[in-house]
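Running this now, will post back.
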Amino acid sequence: MLAGLMYALLAGLFGALASSSAKLSLGASYLKELCDTAVRTWAEEEEDSLTPGVHTTACDWVHIPLRLVCGLLLFSSNAVMWTFFSKALRHSSSSARATVTTTASNFISSAFLGHVIFGESHALLWWVGISLTLLGLFILHGSSLKKQQLDVKKDD
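Update: finished.
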């Protein structure tokens, strides 16, 4: 039962990683802006060794391989996510439990990755929604534990 929970949590994490990779690979200008910022910061530190305008030329093409890497990360993260989700279904007492746990893990991981990578913030309504989702998850897990304890007592 604990293995199913861990697999479901990992499936949600890899699902969030896949969606962040998709946003990076298909996003119009995020990687190019990130490259511009990094090179500009580096150029300020090494001001004497660079000529003006070099960073814009480099960032015009560097974002393309980075997008391809993010695309590969998208497909590999999706494959790992489905593997963990399948294992969660196999090791959980019910498919609903594995699905809700994976979904909650995905929401929380997406919020964390969105904040860290993209600087996103969420409105109060989003936090209310995720809190209700987590409350439902705790109720689902709690009722499963009580049911298993009653089944064990009946067998004795």
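The chain has a mean pLDDT of 82. More later if anyone needs it.
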